[in-house]
Automatic annotation (TrEMBL):
It is found in: Nucleus. Residues 541-557 have a biased composition (Polar residues). It holds the Pfam family PUA_NSUN2. One of its GO terms (molecular function) is tRNA binding. This is S-adenosyl-L-methionine-dependent methyltransferase. GO terms for biological process: tRNA methylation. Residues 1-15 have a biased composition (Basic residues).
């Protein structure tokens, strides 16, 4: 597809509706055009160091001056996503191809990104906000929004898709994403952890169907593909056994991450909130096969997509043209090295870390790779993996072999010796004292020690109409002891203490009766810096060193104040002064402009948890200490398979013995199932259990499997299956609670009509399922939509939760999911009909909402707005900030334009007599 200059001009012409937003917010396109795209310092430096051939330079800079194409990705691990991809090809591409520009020229429809496997990534030249606002794109826009909200599509910039693709991640692996928010790459990684799972589980169910006396869905009895998929992760009846830990040090961004990843309903995911430079070691339980007392989790794959100056994103973050300063790269270099070193430490030998930035500056790229390799013991310990055979259709440049460094005052230096000479002669300046040897091209005594920078990948805007990116793959050859940072300067934060942990971890377990203390002393001696009180010292130590990102306890409900007192580490007062001190002391902070900055208003108390906002009142816990309230997390408590509630579920749903009973979890201190029962993989259970109360900040884990429901009638199970847990559980539910549906017309009726009547002969209007649902006992059941050859039949299999109440029936689906399915399967946008009694009284705004001038407004703390990434282009995939206030299942605040958010709140209908509310509104973010 011809890409390049034409799209910018065309987009401008088609901008339509410019400034026509109801709140008069400024159109993004206007601001893109307004910013002057000329910066002699930036352009001069990159012309000098990047080695772009003279004849390409004009094209190079011209590309950075255009807006980015609009791109999105289908969720690879989900069968539905492929159906959605088919819809794009068969319905929307032909429709878009008919749209013309004002000059009569046809619009370019979306096309697959040529280098992305399986046509799962697509892009189009028409800019995002033209698609959003220009009427002929309305149906396509609706499709994108609804499929994004249900997790079948992710909006993501194409270069950002590269790092996960080169990780060679295989099902069954343990993976860590060090800096994961807002989560577009983490979503890709999670999809890879689950690759082949649907086919594997299906095969396993089929293999055991006869033994277990269960029916499986129609379809081929076995396929070579299924067998192949099975081999990828064969244990645990085909369920994925791998793990993704997605981490981010920014609490609010971590919640964006949770929202992004929750759409994938993975029981193999944990989200943590730690400073990656000191990422804590995660303990594993001793097992009969592995009795070591000090077993720590090591990873097969780690992504270090580090905070960076982000100048590769100028096409999106247009203000970088005027705000760019070389001090940003200088200020971030050290943190980047630390994150990479910590990543390498936490890898298994033979494991791989992918290091990436969206910056072009060698100080953040090749220099970081070189410094980290050097600190980890050189090329003998860490291998730079060749990349020339990866993604052959992706055009890229190799890494730089030599580079110069621009200091924050704009002076360019060739070597650190040159800086030292200058300092010796003239005295160090504020700019030169920030430079360190690791930022420069490494000097090597012999060619075999030379880092093969040609294996690094550099992607530039002009090559394939993308943003800029840097990617390197490192493989850990053997364990090593990282060298301490040599150039520790006055005022810089202490080096990570992680080295000591590695020493402790790699020690043999104590013999019976032997104390652990000598091991720790020995480990202390190795580093000579720290005294580790026990094997979990890293976390406690990190909490002391970095109170800003610490202080969560997982075990019980305590305020942060309590926590500090109970831990006896520091008083609140001390903690506060330490925080202030830390902030002031952090080098380079004053001139550092980290890409992906906190969203506007981030210093507000932006963290709202369940209950916080009920009736618009901030919960006492959140009020008590506004700085620390955000750090409270409910504990993760596993419940026994023998628990009476689990037994009641087992009995009601006739659960197969093949479904594990030892992975159900609740999130409250009492450990009793109150409202929700979650499910996790076995490895996640081991991790959450083994590390409970040890200070690791787990902020998300588990898929909601059962929700408690008010029920009428004897023998009705009060635990309904949540739709996100349905795909995991459904194959193991007994026939007694299964309803099968084959006709599109039946499903369409169930999607459009909420609570269709069953009693008083109403079942006769429900077609093929009428008789069955009339006779089935009350409560939750599994609706299996089976494929068939019938002209009114389905080509794909689907499973949905269904609720049978005394008089009626209801699909337990959020309205947005119903609408998305109606659109996808029937190309239908019919408004939904609610047959429930209370809904007939009209839509009543629930507490926290008000209607003004015919518009519904969400009466929420402005911090909701602060949590949303307004103007934060990092969250390319329509980043939405989700909070969970009051009685609502979801509140989604999505960036609109300027300072505005679209806010949508939804409560999923539960049972017959409670009507749901779905209210949309707008919320102005604080100026
Ligand atoms: C480049 S962004 C990551 C983008 C993300 N990988 C994605 O694909 O959506 C860098 C992230 O690093 C986080 N961050 C900054 N410093 C960090 C640190 N010391 N430890 C962990 N995360 C950090 C920021 O909050 C930001 O979310």
């Amino acid at each position: 597809m011809a890409r390049g200059g034409k799209r910018g001009g065309r987009g401008r012409g088609r901008g339509g509706n410019r400034g026509g937003d109801r709140r008069g917010g400024e159109d993004n396109r206007v601001s893109f055009d307004k910013v002057e795209k000329n910066n002699p310092k930036l352009q001069g430096y990159y012309d000098e160091v990047l080695g772009i051939p003279e004849k390409e330079r004009e094209e190079f800079w011209a590309a950075y001056k255009r807006e980015l194409p609009n791109s999105f990705r289908f969720t690879g691990s989900k069968g539905h996503a492929l159906t959605v991809q088919k819809k794009l090809k068969e319905r929307y591409v032909p429709e878009i191809s008919k749209i013309s520009h004002w000059d009569g020229q046809k619009v370019d429809p979306p096309v697959p990104v040529e280098w992305y496997p399986d046509e799962l990534a697509w892009w189009m030249t028409t800019p995002k906000n033209v698609v959003r606002k220009f009427a002929p794109f309305a149906a396509f826009q609706k499709f994108l929004v609804s499929e994004t909200s249900v997790g079948n599509i992710s909006r993501q910039e194409v270069v950002s898709m590269i790092p996960p693709l080169v990780m060679d991640l295989k099902p069954g692996m343990t993976v860590l994403d060090m800096c994961a928010a807002p989560g577009s790459k983490a979503a890709q990684l999670l999809e890879m952890v689950h690759r082949g799972e649907e086919a594997r589980v299906h095969k396993s169910l089929r293999d055991y169907a006869e033994t277990d006396g269960r029916k499986t869905s129609p379809g081929p009895t076995s396929s070579a593909e299924d067998d192949e998929a099975f081999e990828l992760d064969p244990t645990d009846n085909g369920r994925a056994t791998g793990l993704l830990i997605a981490n981010d040090s920014d609490y609010k961004r971590s919640h964006m991450l949770i929202h992004q990843l929750k759409r994938l309903s993975s029981p193999n995911l944990i989200v943590t909130n730690h400073d990656a430079t000191m990422y804590p070691s995660i303990k594993l339980p001793a097992t009969p096969e592995n009795p070591a007392f000090n077993r720590y989790l090591k990873f097969d794959r780690i992504l270090a997509d580090v905070p960076c100056s982000g100048d590769g994103t100028m096409r999106k973050n247009v203000n970088l043209w005027k705000d760019w300063t070389p001090g940003n790269a200088i200020g971030l270099h050290q943190t980047q090295v630390r994150i990479l070193v910590r990543s390498l430490q936490m890898l298994k030998a033979g494991g791989r870390v992918v290091y990436s930035t969206c910056s072009m500056n060698p100080v953040e790229n090749e220099a970081v790779v070189a410094s980290a390799i050097e600190r980890c013991g050189g090329l003998e310990k860490v291998h730079v993996v060749p990349t020339s055979d990866q993604l052959p259709l992706l055009k890229r440049y190799t890494g730089l072999k030599h580079w110069k460094v621009m200091d924050k005052a704009g002076k360019v230096w060739s070597s650190f010796e040159e800086v030292e000479e200058y300092n010796a002669k003239n005295g160090a300046t504020a700019a030169t004292e920030k430079l360190s040897p690791g930022m420069f091209t490494p000097m090597v005594s012999s060619p075999e020690f030379a880092i093969p920078f040609d294996r690094c990948m550099r992607v530039y805007a002009h090559s394939q109409d993308t943003g800029g990116f840097f990617i390197t793959i490192l493989e850990k050859r053997t364990e090593f002891k990282a060298k301490p940072e040599s150039e520790q300067k006055k005022g810089e934060p202490k080096p990570p203490i992680s080295a000591i942990v590695d020493e402790i971890e790699s020690m043999p377990p104590p013999k019976e009766g032997e104390s652990v203390a000598p091991k720790i002393e020995a480990a202390d001696a190795l580093d000579g810096v720290f005294t580790a009180p026990d094997e979990v010292a890293p976390v406690a130590r990190q909490n002391q060193e970095n109170p800003e990102t610490s202080a969560t306890v997982n075990s019980n409900k305590r305020s942060a104040d309590d926590e500090v007192e109970i831990d006896g580490v520091m008083s609140t007062k001390k903690l506060k002064s330490r925080q202030e001190g830390d902030e002031a002391a952090e080098p380079g902070l004053e001139d550092r402009q980290v890409h992906y900055p906190p969203p506007p208003g981030a210093n507000l108390d932006a963290t709202i948890r369940p209950g916080d906002m009920r009736d618009g009142i901030v919960a006492p816990q959140a009020r008590r200490n506004k700085d620390h309230a955000q750090q409270f997390e409910e504990p993760f408590k596993y419940i026994s398979g023998e628990h009476p509630e689990v037994k009641s579920i087992e009995e009601f749903y006739h659960l197969s013995p093949r479904f594990p009973r030892d992975r159900f979890m609740v999130r409250n201190a009492s450990g009793e199932p109150a409202k929700t029962i979650y499910y996790t993989s076995a490895l996640i259970r081991d991790i959450l259990t083994e590390n409970e109360g040890k200070g690791i900040k787990f902020i998300h884990g588990g898929v909601r499997m059962f929700m408690k429901q008010d029920v009428q009638g004897d023998g009705v199970c009060k635990w309904r299956i949540q739709s996100e847990g349905m795909p995991i559980l459904e194959g193991y539910v007994g026939e007694e609670r299964v309803v099968r549906l084959y006709k599109k017309s039946t499903l369409k009726k169930l999607l459009i009509e909420m609570f269709p009547k069953v009693a008083d002969g109403g079942w006769k209007n429900l077609g093929e399922i009428g008789e069955h649902v009339n006779n089935i006992g009350m409560g939750c059941c599994v609706l299996r939509i089976e494929p068939s050859d019938d002209p009114d039949g389905f080509s794909e299999r689907m499973v949905l939760p269904l609720w049978r109440s005394l008089h009626s029936l209801n699909l337990m689906l959020a309205k947005e999911d119903r609408s998305a399915m109606l659109l996808r399967i029937f190309n239908d946008t019919t408004p939904l009909v609610n047959n429930s009694n209370t809904s007939k009284q009209g839509k009543q705004p629930a507490p926290g909402f008000k209607i003004e001038d015919g518009e519904v407004h969400v009466d929420v703390n402005p911090s909701i707005a602060a949590a949303a990434p307004v103007g934060d282009d990092a969250s390319e995939q329509a980043a939405e900030a989700v909070v969970k206030p009051g009685p609502y299942d979801t509140i989604v605040a999505a960036p609109k334009t300027g300072n505005e958010l679209d806010v949508k709140a939804e409560r999923i209908d539960k049972g017959e007599d409670t009507s749901g509310h779905e209210i949309e509104g707008q919320l102005g973010a604080p100026a």
